[in-house]
Write a structure and sequence with these properties.
With 150 residues, the chain is mainly alpha-helical. The protein is 71% helix and 7% strand. It has a two-stranded antiparallel ribbon.
Length: 150
């Protein structure tokens, strides 16, 4: 038992490392987007809605990597803020979400701020680090989708 405890305390927890990385990036983007009134999570969701407008909520959940309940909570907040509205999807049996005029305006306001933080991060990190971040994200997402029974 002592060997196990020693191994556990001296090991790096990959989950905590990833969470710290995600939080650091989220904080950088949220600070950059502050003037627009959006958080990076809202910006990313609005941008994805814009890309696939008219698709079902299931398609939106899949494209964002969010489960339906998390997506629903986020969308209800954005609906109350007047950024999105629910509508009938292309398949009349499903629902979709579309941007409102305020949602489109929020994206226009946030775009320059988002682009500026992208440039700042690209300048601060090496191309190799940025590529590792991209590949790590893809590999972990694939592991999540395909390797639930590890």
């Amino acid at each position: 038992m002592r060997v196990y405890a020693r191994i556990m305390t001296s090991s790096i927890c990959y989950c905590m490392q990833a969470r710290r990385t995600a939080q650091a990036l989220t904080d950088l983007y949220d600070d950059a987007l502050e003037e627009s009134g959006l958080k990076v999570t809202q910006f990313a969701l609005l941008r994805q809605i814009q890309r696939i407008e008219g698709q079902s909520l299931t398609a939106l959940a899949k494209s964002t990597g969010l489960d339906r309940s998390t997506l629903g909570r986020n969308l209800r907040v954005m609906e109350r803020e007047g950024l999105v509205r629910f509508a009938e999807a292309r398949d009349a049996r499903a629902r979709s979400v579309v941007l409102t005029g305020d949602g489109r305006a929020a994206l226009v306001r946030a775009d320059p701020e988002w682009a500026a933080i992208q440039v700042r991060i690209k300048a601060a990190l090496s191309p190799e680090t940025l590529e590792m971040l991209r590949v790590l994200s893809l590999e972990l997402d694939a592991l999540r989708r395909d390797g639930r029974g590890l």
